[in-house]
Structures are given as C-alpha cells and as structure tokens.
Design brief:
By secondary structure, this protein is mainly beta. Helix content is 9%, strand content 55%. The chain contains seven helices and 22 strands. The strands form two sheets. The chain has a 14-stranded antiparallel beta barrel with strand order 1-2-3-8-9-10-11-15-16-18-19-20-21-22.
Length: 534
C-alpha cells in the first residue's frame, strides 16, 4: 500500500491539548540494562555483591563495600534492530557514553563504622531508539469507525468539530483533536470535503461498512533518552552490614513519529450529499510528539555479610517524580476515487496553526530488589536478584495539582506488576583476568484481558495507538582485566524483547476487534569500561 504524502509544517509543531495517559507513562517509565561493563556482563545481577559504580543506581548498599576510591568511564556501541512480525527488519547503530562515575572511600577510626564512602555517577538509563513498520491485511474494522464511535459516545456534532466566528474547536471545545482533524479536511481536489468521518443523520460515521475490505499500514520511529545523575553515600558497620542511599536527578528527552493509514475498497465515502460505497479510499495520520522534563528519585539499600561466603541484599527505589511537557502535532489526509482516477483529496493539520504546550506530572513505578550471593574465596562469585516493579502504582496528574483519578483507575485496570529475575557469575582465571556471564528475564506488564483484547482501552492523545512489552530477556558475557590500580572490562549484551503494537482499542461491547501486531527486538551492545582504583 502506498503511504499518503502528508506535509508536516517545518516552522514548528503545533501541540495537542492533552496530557499523557496510562500507556504513555508505562513507556516513559521503562529502564534498560545499562551501567558499567562488569555490571552488564553479569546481567545487572549485583544486588548482594557491591563494589561497582553501577550499584549507585541498583543497591546503594554496595557503595559501603568499597575500601578504596574508584573512577571509571563506560563507552558502548549499540547495534539494534526491530521488526514487526512478517515485515522488514529495521536496524540502527548508536554510540553512547553509558556511564561515568566516581566513588571516594574514607577509613574511619571507629570500632563500629569502618568506612564512610560517597560517590556520584552519570548513567544512561534508557535509549528510546526504536524503528519498525508493517502492514495488516484483510482488516475487519477501521480507525475511522473507532474515531466516529468516540465522537458518538460523547455526543459530539459537526458544530463541535468546525471552526466558526468566536469558536475554535481546539481550545473552546472538548472534542478529541483527532476527531476534529478527521472531520475538517481541507479539499485539495474535488468540490466536496473528503472527510475521514462524516455525519450520517444524527450520528458520525466512518469509512468501513458492509462489503468494505482493505489493508492497513503503520510506522513507529522513536528517539531520545533518559539520563540519571546520582549522588550517593554509605558505609560499613563492622565489616558485616553495608548500607547506602542515593539521590537521583533524571533528565528526559523523548521524540516519536507515528504513522497509521488504511487503503479501503468499497468504502463509504460522502460524495456531495450521498454516501457512495463504490469508491476506494486511502487515508492516514502522522503524529509527531516530543516529551521533555526532569525528575528525581531516592534509593536505599543494604548488604549483609554474616559470613564471607554468603551475602544477601535488599534495596528499595521510590518512584521517579517527573514534571514534563509535551509538544504534539497531527496531520490527517485522505484521497478517494474510482479506478485509477482520484476524484477528491484533502488534508488538515491539527490546531489550525496555533501553538500550545501541555504541562503535567507523572510518577513511575516503585521497585523492590532482593538478592543473595555466594563467594568462593577470591576465585568465583554468583549472585541472584529478584526485582518487583509495581506498574500498577504509576500515576499522572496536573503539574502542580492532584493526580487524574480516571487515569489512576485505568492504570490499576490495565497493568500488573512485572517480575525480573537476574543471575550473574564471575570466575577469576588468575589475579589479572576474569570471565563473566549472566541472564535476566522480565515478565509482561499488562493483565491477561488486556493482552487478549478483552477490554476497552482509553487513550487521550491524538494518537490512539498503544504498545506494551510481553517479555524481555538478556543474555550477557564479559571479560575483565586488572593491572595494579588500572582495570578494563569488556561486555556483550544481547536483548530480546517481544512487544505488541495496537493501532487502536477494540470496542468490546460492539464486538469490534482491534488491529494488533507482534513486534520483536534483537538488540546487541558491546561496551568497554576503563577505570582506576586508588
């Protein structure tokens, strides 16, 4: 299917009057396996070991294990690919400075407190880079019908969707912007508006009806990052209890481009005053979004070593409390005709050229990590982590006001906790060289009724598409070298993630299906850490 050419304004994006909803917050809350090469090569399984700069962002109790100061930098090369199952694979390569950190260790003349340590680090928590596209054949419904159903459910009429003297529907009305765009296409060919949704009697109607058939296509291109700047301190009680605390400052910059389009035969096109279902119709939307802002969080952790061969650790992460703003734009376009002849065409950009910015706050999930580790002298160690991610505790609200109660209800309805298990091991070949390996697995973020399309999904942005992860695993390996105070660590990380893309929600009460596709990511990372202990 040919994608419609949609002309985006180059002079700046206009913005949608809406804040993020449940699935947007889920996406922005995601973190990745990133840190030092030693940490990544053991799949991030370090909760009961400590003594690595990455523990500032995992179990801060690990800072108490340090007996000397540490300074390091980690560079990484990401070779990522994503594919919609049955479609082409899209790859990209990106270089990152993954981690920079310092830990200072100070001995204390005390029978109880043996060390007091402090540190700071920069860590790239998430790189949003992901690009995939695909198609869905023999569709049984249409996004145009979904938009029409939304408008009908709220009782919106053409008067709510059209601009007139003294009334701007984007700011003076309450109708969803994608509905305004869908109804208000500007004719670029023909004598009538080729609207994506039209009025039929007292109801709004989409293009799909009895006898209609067609295909859909989509494309998602994401960019951006989440960076964390951490300050930590901790200590060592009688060489048995190691404790620590971290304050994290987060910087986020996320950009996304989303396209969705359909090509329909025997579509119900309004031609003048009559619906003509002998015509073909092709339409599509381009959504552009940018989210920026800052946040903060706190982490507490402890490692207990009753005997040298056995250790266990506990860590608690508060949510990250973000204040964010969105810049958003949507363009809709449609063509219709018979045979090879296009008889009508139109396009419209949201907001009629006005600019607007939406401010809001989000709260990411809280996390709990429990760990156990075994150590065999100076030759080998094994660590096992379990992490609980409370996805159902996420919140969205006014920038300086209360949470949105309706979004809170949807978060609780849609999401369930994710469980992460990480296993990592290190074997010291000799005093200079070490081998490492690890594995991690993360469970789905959503409830079964959501995954099986047995519930309606509410989205508030101009883009009704939503996505979530069903599972994620990492297979890792690494090599470490030590020479006096200098060290160098090399890591290889393979991430395999299975996600689901949904073009729009099913309408369960009406028996209307959704259009969904499985997405697979195969991401590889090679990283190098260079450090000095003194």
């Amino acid at each position: 299917m040919k994608k419609l050419a949609l002309a985006l304004m180059a002079c700046g994006m206009a913005l949608a009057a809406t804040a993020q909803d449940a699935f947007d917050v889920l996406h922005l809350s995601t973190t990745q396996l990133r840190g030092t090469s030693r940490y990544m090569s053991m799949a991030g399984s370090f909760g009961a070991l400590g003594g690595d700069i990455s523990v500032l962002n995992q179990n801060p109790g690990g800072i108490g294990v340090y007996r000397s100061s540490d300074l390091s930098i980690t560079l990484s090369l990401d070779l990522n690919s994503a594919e919609s199952v049955g479609s082409e694979k899209i790859s990209h390569t990106k270089f990152n400075v993954n981690n920079i950190g310092y830990v200072g260790a100070m001995k204390v003349n005390s029978d109880v407190l043996k060390n007091f340590n402090w540190g700071f680090s920069y860590n790239r928590n998430n790189s949003f880079h992901r690009h995939y596209r695909g198609g869905i054949g023999n569709i049984e419904t249409s996004l145009s019908n979904y938009i029409a159903a939304q408008l009908n459910a709220e009782g919106y009429t053409p008067a709510d969707l059209e601009s007139r003297t003294g009334f701007n529907p984007y700011f003076d009305g309450y109708a969803p912007w994608i509905g305004i765009v869908s109804y208000g296409l500007k004719p670029t060919k023909g004598t009538t508006k080729p609207n994506i949704v039209n009025q039929n009697g007292s109801q709004m109607q989409g293009l799909y009806g009895d006898g209609t058939y067609g295909i859909a296509e989509y494309e998602i291109d994401e960019r951006g990052y989440t960076d964390e700047f951490s300050i930590a301190f901790g200590g060592n009680f009688v060489n048995t209890v190691y404790w620590g605390a971290t304050v994290g400052i987060i910087d986020m910059d996320y950009k996304s481009y989303a396209y969705y389009g359909e090509s329909l035969e025997k579509a119900y096109v309004l031609d003048g005053t009559k619906f003509d279902n002998s015509m073909w119709a092709a339409y599509g939307y381009e959504n552009v979004n940018r989210t920026r802002g800052n946040g903060y969080n706190f982490k507490l952790g402890v490692i207990v070593k009753p005997v040298n061969e056995f250790r266990f650790g506990l860590a608690f992460h508060t949510p990250t409390f973000f204040k964010l703003h969105d810049d958003y734009y949507v363009v809709g376009a449609m063509e219709a005709g018979k045979g090879d002849v296009t008889t009508m065409a139109g396009t419209k950009g949201s907001n009629d050229g006005y600019s607007h910015r939406v401010y809001y706050k989000i709260k990411t999930p809280w996390r709990f990590i429990g760990s156990v580790a075994g150590v065999i002298g100076k030759q080998a160690m094994v660590n096992l982590d379990y992490e609980y991610v409370g996805n159902q505790t996420m919140r969205v609200g006014e920038e300086n006001g209360p949470d949105y109660s309706d979004v809170t209800a949807r978060v609780k309805e849609y999401f369930q906790p994710s469980h992460i298990v990480r296993l990592g091991a290190e074997f010291r070949i000799n005093p200079s060289w070490s081998l490492r390996a690890g594995y991690s697995y993360k469970t789905t973020q959503v409830k079964d009724d959501m995954d099986k399309a047995r519930m309606d999904v509410v989205t508030v942005s101009n883009n009704p598409a939503y996505q979530y992860d069903n599972s994620e695993q990492h297979i890792t390996a690494g090599l470490g070298y030590r020479y006096k105070a200098f060290y160098a660590d090399l890591a290889y990380v393979h991430q395999y993630r299975k996600s689901v893309y949904n073009a729009f929600s099913p309408i369960v009460s009406a028996g209307e299906p959704n259009l969904a596709a499985d997405i697979k990511d195969h991401n590889n990372r090679i990283s190098l850490t260079l450090g000095y202990r003194f």
